[in-house]
């Protein structure tokens, strides 16, 4: 390998950190410079993510299903810090790059000027997400998790408005509590096993003495609760819809990946530490995940049907997506998990696009938080004032037709209806569940079906009200070029996923099989090659 190629795995973490740090030293009026640096950074991260994804898909590192391991300072695990790029982590990094790039493009229409230090916070958020996805130990998972959350606090409060500040403070309080649970869980696990490296933990779990097993399970349960809060699993997900609906549109769109970071960690730790080889700990917590996932799907579906606001409906869509993956993970079938991973990609992209569309369709209403009075002295004016609203080149013709088509695609994706990727993912899950059989599997099939119907009813009602039955005195739709580009890119990714669904399902099939056999991951980290 060439030197640059051997360091590729750390690029999605280091690059946004360096550029964000440099931005903090530049004056806030250097908007064009900061926007250009942010776009260049996201483009570079996307390229690196796609290269890593291609290697994972084709087994370029040693052949077959394997993982690339990066040892910082050349210290071997479990004593050194390692980054691990396998099928699951590279898929999530690529998803983060696409989602983050589109949200950033949307923000360039106006929202990056609605408050200070937007670009630095945005890149630090991307850095934290990528670090959490690529790290191989629980200590650095906590570090990156806190970087991600600290940046998200700033983005949740970005812009003016009392409603945004009120929801943001609740969000901060909830996540600080989750961080405390994280520390308690990690401390208990370290006290029992003496290690925090995930692969090393997997080798030590089967040998835990019976007298210590209960304490280890308590630590794992506390740690899992911290991430289930981030997943917004019922009943600890009460904070999500109010926070996401109050946040600025690009912030809410990129927040759609944050809940999936929690889902990623639950998948990783459940299958790595509590797989078939875990002895007395095998299958720990899976039943709770299944029932919690079912409750989350039901709660999200009822909430979406009852929503009168598109942004809140999109938030409930995020909850449904997370609950679906958690419930499937609880079933314990690799084929069903493959469909859930495919569904996770499409639903995350669709929910992010729905947040962006909601801002466009609801712009100008009296309840818009962006028009509320400022709370802090350094808040900027409304980025959508009349002075700039009709700036040449910003208005897109046939906006109603374009927005209607975009909303239709979002609705079909979130509801899991044909012919788009959401349907492919749900059909794959249902097919696998039918093969599994049993009361739990059939219950999940019924809940998934009812959830699709509920999402279709709720979003259709909101779409008709927002586009086709608007008040006569409502302002005309004004869509910025950057806004339309961002929404089109997200929905284009959804369509692309549907066209190449066969190849994507092959990838998720191999990913689920790789996760079900954790010895490959363990060998790559503790005994395989790597820098």
Topology:
Elements: H1 3-6, H2 11-23, H3 31-58, E1 68-71, E2 82-85, H4 87-107, H5 118-134, H6 138-156, H7 162-193, H8 198-204, H9 210-231, H10 240-246, H11 249-273, H12 286-306, H13 310-331, H14 334-361, H15 386-389, H16 399-415, H17 421-436, H18 439-468, H19 481-499, H20 501-516, H21 519-526
Antiparallel strand pairs: 1-2
Helix pairs in contact: 2-3, 2-5, 3-4, 4-5, 4-11, 4-14, 4-19, 5-6, 5-11, 6-7, 6-11, 7-9, 7-10, 8-21, 9-11, 10-11, 10-13, 11-13, 11-14, 12-13, 12-18, 13-14, 13-18, 14-16, 14-17, 14-19, 14-20, 16-18, 16-19, 17-18
Write out the strand line-up for the largest beta sheet, numbering strands in chain order.
1-2
Number of strands: 2
Mean pLDDT: 84
Sheet having the most strands: 2 strands, antiparallel
Please tell me what the overall shape is: globular
Oligomer: single chain
User: How many H/I helical runs?
Assistant: 21
How far apart are the first and last residues' alpha carbons, in Å? Answer: 10 Å
Rg, nearest Å: 22 Å
Helix content: over 70%
Query: What's the structural domain tally?
Result: 1
SS class: mainly alpha
Pick out the low-confidence regions.
366-379, 386-397
What is the string of helix and strand elements? HHHEEHHHHHHHHHHHHHHHHHH
């Amino acid at each position: 390998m060439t030197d640059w190629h051997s360091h590729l795995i750390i690029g999605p973490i280091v690059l946004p950190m360096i550029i964000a740090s440099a931005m903090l030293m530049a004056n806030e009026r250097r908007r064009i410079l900061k926007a250009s640096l942010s776009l260049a950074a996201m483009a570079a991260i996307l390229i690196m993510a796609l290269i890593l994804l291609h290697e994972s898909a084709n087994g370029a590192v040693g052949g077959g299903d394997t993982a690339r391991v990066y040892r910082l300072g050349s210290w071997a695990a479990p004593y050194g810090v390692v980054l691990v790029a396998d099928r699951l982590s590279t898929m999530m990094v690529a998803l983060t790059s696409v989602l983050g790039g589109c949200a950033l493009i949307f923000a360039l229409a106006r929202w990056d000027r609605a408050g200070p230090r937007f670009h630095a916070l945005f890149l630090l958020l991307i850095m934290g997400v990528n670090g959490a996805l690529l790290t191989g130990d629980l200590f650095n998972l906590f570090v990156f998790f806190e970087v991600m959350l600290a940046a998200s606090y700033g983005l949740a409060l970005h812009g003016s408005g009392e409603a945004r500040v009120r929801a943001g403070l609740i969000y901060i309080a909830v996540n600080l509590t989750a961080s405390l649970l994280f520390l308690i869980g990690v401390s208990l696990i370290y006290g029992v096993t003496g290690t925090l490296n995930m692969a090393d933990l997997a080798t030590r779990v089967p040998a835990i003495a019976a007298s210590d097993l209960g304490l280890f399970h308590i630590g794992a349960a506390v740690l899992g609760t911290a991430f289930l809060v981030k997943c917004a699993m019922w009943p600890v997900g009460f904070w999500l819809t109010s926070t996401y609906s109050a946040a600025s549109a690009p912030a809410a769109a990129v927040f759609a990946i944050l809940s999936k970071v929690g889902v990623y960690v639950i998948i990783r730790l459940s299958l790595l530490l509590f797989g078939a080889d875990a002895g007395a700990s095998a299958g720990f917590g899976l039943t709770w995940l299944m029932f919690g996932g079912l409750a989350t799907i039901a709660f999200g579906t009822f909430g979406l049907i009852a929503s009168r606001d598109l942004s809140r409906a999109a938030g409930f869509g995020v909850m449904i997506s997370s609950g679906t993956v958690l419930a499937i993970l609880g079933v314990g079938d690799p084929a069903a998990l493959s469909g859930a991973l495919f569904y996770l990609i499409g639903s995350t992209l669709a929910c992010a696009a729905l947040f962006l569309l909601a801002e466009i369709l609801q712009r100008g209403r009296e309840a818009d938080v962006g028009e509320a009075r400022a709370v802090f002295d350094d808040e900027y004016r409304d980025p959508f004032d009349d002075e700039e609203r009709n700036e040449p080149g910003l208005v897109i013709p046939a906006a109603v037709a374009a927005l209607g088509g975009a909303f239709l695609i979002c609705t079909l994706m979130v509801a899991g209806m044909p012919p788009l990727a959401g349907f492919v993912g749900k059909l794959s899950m249902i097919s696998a569940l039918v093969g599994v059989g049993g009361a739990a599997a059939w219950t999940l099939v019924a809940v998934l079906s009812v959830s699709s119907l509920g999402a279709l009813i709720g979003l259709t009602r909101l779409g008709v009200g927002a586009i086709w039955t608007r008040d006569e005195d409502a302002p005309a739709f004004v869509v910025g070029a950057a806004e339309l580009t961002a929404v089109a890119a997200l929905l284009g990714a959804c369509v692309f996923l549907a066209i190449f669904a066969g190849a994507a399902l092959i990838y998720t099939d191999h990913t689920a099989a790789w996760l079900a056999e954790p010895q490959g991951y363990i060998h790559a980290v503790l005994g395989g090659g790597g820098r």
